[in-house]
Amino acid sequence: MKWARIMAIAFLLVVSAASLLANFVAPASYAHQFRDVPDAAPSRQHLLGTDDLGRDRFSRVLYGTRVSLLLAPAAALLASVLAALVGGIAGFVGGWVERCVMAATDLFLSLPWLFLLITVRALLPLNVSPVTSVVITFALLGCLGWAGAARVVCADARALSQSDFVLLARASGSAGIRLLWHHLVPNLKPVLYAQFWISVPVFMIAEANLGILGLGVAEPLPSWGSLLRELESFSTISGQPWQFVPLILLIVVVSSFHLVLTQEELPV
Amino acid sequence: MRQRWVRIVLLILAVLSTGIALAQSGGELRFCLRSDPKTFNPLLMADDASETVRYLTGGVLMRLNRLTQEAEPELATSWKVSDGGKTITLKLRDGVRFSDGTPLSSDDVAYTVQQLMDPALHSPTGDAFRSGEGRVITRVLGKNRITITFPAPIAGLDKLFDQVAIMSAKSPQKEMAVLGPYYVAENKAGAYLILKRNPNYWKHDSSGRQLPYIDSVRLEIQQNRDIETLRLERGEIDFINSIDAEYYDKVMAQNPAMAHDAGISLDAEFMWFNQVPTSPLPAYKKAWFTSTNFRRAISEAINREDLVRIAFRGRAHPAAGPVSPGNKFWFNSKLQPHPFDQKSALQRLAQDGFHLQDGVLHDRDGHMVEFSIVTNAGNKYRERMATMIQQDLSGIGIKLNVVTLDFPSLIERMTRTFDYEACLLGLVNTDLDPNSQMNVWLSSSDNHQWNPSQKTPATAWEAEIDKLMRAQASALDAKQRKQYFDQVQEIAWEQEPFIYLVNKDALSAVSPSVRNVHPVVLRPQVYWNIDELSLGSEVARNK
Which of A47, B177, B251, B416 could be B171's S-S partner, Cβ–Cβ 3.0 to 4.6 Å? Predict the structure, then answer.
């Protein structure tokens, strides 16, 4: 298991490095359409062939990985911070505040998030660059993805606030922000880390879902979601196995993230 | 002894051939609908599935021959248009009965027309007949003769009856009593419909045999095109009426005999700029979009040949204007698609003060030329076209942002808030006559997409189009109408309020077991001659 974890970390490092260095590694621009060779098979010029518009698939996978690998953690960080604020304060204060906040969280969880995302996306300004659109997409995912984590954090914060060491701190005169910051937050860190790491692959897949619906990252910028759209019509791709590379990459990266999470980091 | 054996062999062959002949005349034809039909009332049908059922079950006075694009007698053996295009007198066929045995008479035609024009019914089919204020008068002149008078002249009146399935005024089965080749025998919502041969269908072939040849039609409800294609490959369905270029290529690669390309369809893909004066766009962008030079330059900067070759895999043609060459009579053959010429595009832009600065186009006030184009999410052909146009326009220094929206949001922006800059969509044309495009071209119309519901035409050329469209709608002489509509097409080509991109090909996939198939560009492409289709012996036997 230890070896598997080391392999997963190494794989994630290699993938991250390759995607971050895409400007140097990629043989072509992710947007350039080689219109003479659309849907080409792998060759020396195009290692993974070209897509339906003649764009180099290998370059697009590299840039798409960069987008998803950078922004999914960013969205996960945003969601974790929101979860920490909402769940932490609700659990710490307790009483009717906790009941109201958790009721609101439950309501938020019951909303069909995909439709919510589609609606919010439709209300945004149209004239934004692809880079802005990708930031907006992941920011939306982060803003809408805190509720599940907030419930876990709230439960943990409640348990901590009733623990002996917090009682001792209160007896010593510690209260309010000081008690929260010095005694509760450090003990909430493992839960928050775990929520963060769990959220990363969730947001990657959520963006992929949006991409499959055509509502994710704007063209021509690639993301795993837009790359996976090539697979939506199975009967037309069955003879082109190299088109499965983004899917395989997504599966391996998400699996690696799960392997990286050790037992002790996960909340029990 | 030898003669006896020869006789036996001949007898066996005769019995076998009789068996095959019998088998060929029956069977079940199967194909897929994308959704359940929303209604079985032929006057209320507006969706594809309902229209399919209407075509297969409804009996009409005249039928537009999908091959010749001319009206032919069906339930009406003859007709005469008089009173300046306001009145039509029809003579009905003798001895015709509905599927339940009720005889057809002029009363049924009068009943159908009154229902069709009843404002309370809101019949989409009736909209084409609403020529002016006032009532439609039907006069029954006898059992088989009737006169229908409309309040105002209607151009191309006879061809409009192709969409009107005659209903029975007296049958207890109401709209389920039909005059077409089939009747609805079973309907399992969400799963399938079974249509059975109408025992009273009036049509016979040249040898006197009653049509249709096929006993029943099974319409499977299937939304997924992958599954539909797989089912065709497995022989579970007999054809796909309209197929995408990608699936067509796949069918072509596996079984070329199944793939049918009937040529350029009536459908067009196009883009347009928002020219609504009250839209929330900045004034300088409104100035760009209302400039003919700007629109022409964009049009010339788009490589339509590449759109055809890459986005549609060669199964389309560059479009020139609002009428496709597939519309034999109304197409203005003088018009050619705008050629791809970025140098000429830049010259046109220079006339309006646009200039390149470090490879980026700026207007005369120094604004960088950047705009967004919206299209509906999930339509991969439009998304591909938008992305290709993005690269084409970057060649003249324009930054184009491609935005895909879910359809309701797109419609909201197009029709209510007008909060968009350019839009890429398509038009599915089911009607040959330009009257069906009145709601697009009249400046007062809600569907005049680039600037709808104008109180007075915003430009001289829109006023001219209004005048010509009204003139063609009121003229009765087809040649005169064609001249007027040719001028409309020329203005549209010159001004480019819609930048026409491509006309798709009419593609279909048909199992070789289906006989007498002649796919055409008009809907329904494959089964337009349903009563003449037959199934191969093997298929008929198995089914």
Answer: B177
